[in-house]
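Troubleshooting entry. The earlier prediction with iron/sulfur cluster gave an output that would not parse, so I re-checked the input for stray whitespace and re-submitted. Clean input:
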Amino acid sequence: MAKLPLPAEENLSPGHMGCPGCGACIAMRLALKALGKRTILAIPACCWAVMPGVYPYNSIDVPVLFTAFETAAASASGIRAALDVRGIKDVNVVAWAGDGGTLDIGIQALSGAVERRDDIIYVCYDNEAYMNTGIQRSSSTPIGAWTTTTPGGSTGNWKREPKKSGVEIMVAHRIPYAATACVSYPEDFVRKLQKAASIRGPKYIQVLCPCPPGWKSDPEKTITIGRLAVESCMWPMYEVENGVYTVRKPAKRKPVSEYLMMQGRFRHLKEEDIEMIQKLVDEEWELLLKKEEMSQREKPADSRGP
Amino acid sequence: MVKKLINGNYAASYASKLARAQVIAAYPITPQTNVVELIADFVASGEMKAKYICVESEHSAMAACIAASATGARTFTATSSQGLLLMHELLHWASGARLPIVMVNVNRAVGPPWSVWADQTDSISQRDTGWMQFYSESTQELLDTVIMLYKVAESPDILLPGFVTEDAFYLSHTYEPVDIPEQAMVDSFLPPFDPPFKLDVDRPHGLGSLSMPHQWYMEMRYNIAEAMDLSRRRILEVEREWRELTGRSYGGLLDEYGTDGADAIIACAGTAASTAREVVDDMRKVGKRVGLARIRCLRPFPTEELRALGRRVPVIGVMDRCYTFGDGGPLFTEIKSALYQLRDRPLVKNFVAGVGGRDITMKTIEKMFENLLRIGSSGLDREKEWVDLKRPEVV
Ligand SMILES: Cc1ncc(C[n+]2csc(CCOP(=O)(O)OP(=O)(O)O)c2C)c(N)n1
Ligand code: SF4
């Protein structure tokens, strides 16, 4: 990482229990670089509840509260409240949860914390399924994907529903800051985290983290696959600040097939399935660009309210 | 000390203020609502220096309390019935994480059908969560016990959560004159919360991480068992201290009344004990030797106290204000199990009464006593009896 303009600080020790090529490990390492030592994490049940290591070992060098599956956001709220009453002002409180813990079972607590405007950073590391329990579908699993609970079988019943959009749900909450990120773009992710840390109130970052066993991809291809997700616009990279969208446009768009075919979880898809996904991605992308255009044009002075 | 006319719920709010709870996270449910409304007022007026988190569910309320407690803040919440059941998963989490959270639960029936009235199913079904459980008989007792419970829970050798219950409407909404202790006195009794371990950026630790079978999970469970056992002695110590300060005490874990030389006693928890006290007085006046043993503390369980009582009293009627399906009422099975090791065991009979808020009258309790005195000489008639049960008319 010496060549990248990233903070040199390491707050994740070697020796964690993640799989080789785990995107979520990269995400944590970057996040702890970006946020520094004055950070407290709340981690619910998910791969990251296991990865720091078995008690009494712990590869994370900031305080961590391991908590129940659906409580990441409420736990972060509790930590923030306690720091407030103890007069501690300069600590980042970070909820760190998987897509299942965020967009399925934990969404009530997340919605509550964001609506209350609690001063927390919520990072959803999105590996697009429940990986810790062995690759079951989540609402964030993309359409067409194989998982153990969308196995396809003879009926071809792969994940039939499009991915739920965490950022759009957050935008509907009038969150001050929401963004997507991807571990293949470390500087971008670090910048977004640092920006989030500078804003008061709730912040939400959903970072795409390829998962070799869950995506049935080669561990050494994690970064390439992440890049393709962004370049194909399967994973649009954008930020929403007080309702104003900023979208990062790929220099040259790639077809989704290139992204899909690098992963075993999509290998069953037929030509027409891929066309359907391409069409969906195109529509979503167009819509996103329109949102950007409209919100930039109508830029409110401050939509955060009093 | 100021005497105020307040209900049980307000007593809970005053207690949390006097204990200087720093983080309150709570969600409204009938009949608990005015506990949190008054706390919100205290916080809004600046009378209470605390953070009040308006969470979106009881599950999040307990999650936030757990996190705040782990970050070194004294926490408080209150709930009832379905709310307590929604917290169930996290009640285990709080005790496993050794966090001395204190809560008030208004004992209310569990649906269906919907019922907001007194019934102890909600809290009794949390028996195995590792929380200390206190059942109050009066508003004053509720207020005092919340403050005492913080001191017990936060003792470095205990570090366990606990709750105090009040029967729906009988205590939650009934106004009684209550001594509100001086803040300075409570401060002298209850030192600020300063846990040995907390989330601290200057001393980073992971709290609650993974443990393997060959490692420390089992030992940590054993430590909780030890702490729960130790809490028996601590509860008595703390109550003694409170009595020295205020002149008030409530009988420790098992509150006995008229048990000396009794031929039969009734054991129960909650407000029905008040009614039973009156009946004991009346029956004693006409020479019937009956008494009361109020289970004030269900967890830890007053095993030794009950055994001592069981050695002296030949007949014990156990009155349960709820039922756990499959064997008998919960207090009944607990008490029977405590008495099992005695060489000469008393007769034990289960009365199920007042379920879903049905009134437990003096007449009802008198009938129970008469029955107990009778079976004392003639032998047990029925092991379990649902009292004042209406029979639907057969068409
Ligand atoms: C209440 C509850 N239900 C189910 C589980 C089992 N469980 C643990 S982790 C997990 C999936 C986590 O998925 P996600 O949040 O996407 O994180 P990942 O494992 O992919 O990192 C599940 C279902 C649990 N711990 N608690
Ligand atoms: S299963 Fe996936 S997310 Fe979990 S540790 Fe392995 S690579 Fe990372």
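This one parsed fine. The interface with chain B takes residues 37-40, 42, 49-50, 52-56, 58, 60-68, 70-71, 73-79, 81-86, 91, 108-109, 111-112, 115-116, 118 of chain A (CB under 8 Å).
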